[in-house]
# Entry
Amino acid sequence: MELGEVVVKDTEGRDVRLGEVWRDQPAVVVFVRHYG
Amino acid sequence: MRPHEQEFAQGGGKLVVVGNGWPAMAKSWAQHVGFPQAVEVLTDPSRKAYDLAGFKRSRVLTLLNPRSVARWVRALVRGFRQGRTAGDAWQQGGALVVLPSGEVSYRYVSLGPGDHPGPAALLEALRKARQVSGLR
# Structure
């Protein structure tokens, strides 16, 4: 599986295919350890 | 990272923050931090994206990394306080710059709490990514 195929959630619980976030322009994607 | 959002936009990139708790946790945290709307906050409860990106999950890195302890003390001295943990406490983070082609042009794998690239490093990675890929 490619990273862009992973389906994550937005803050409202909607599915977002990760590849969508860099489809139109480069994305800086910061993965945090946890919230808090 | 929040005060630098405009710089990422001016640099021709989008800033996305991914966590690993439930959406309600992500929403509460995003409101607490005060991210502008242009910053997309997402969550990956399965941590599948973390795994595919090569980010680590380790109790040792979280608790017993001397550098992390030093960073924690430095943060305390500077007045930063960590809130209640929401999400996977052992998961480490990292950062990527990903091009529209899906190519990962920059990857930083965090080796413990407080180990993350600063905004300047990410902006430089974004600039190089655009240059290498011929984007203007």
Q: What stands out?
A: Strands of chain A lie at 7-10, 15-17, 27-31.
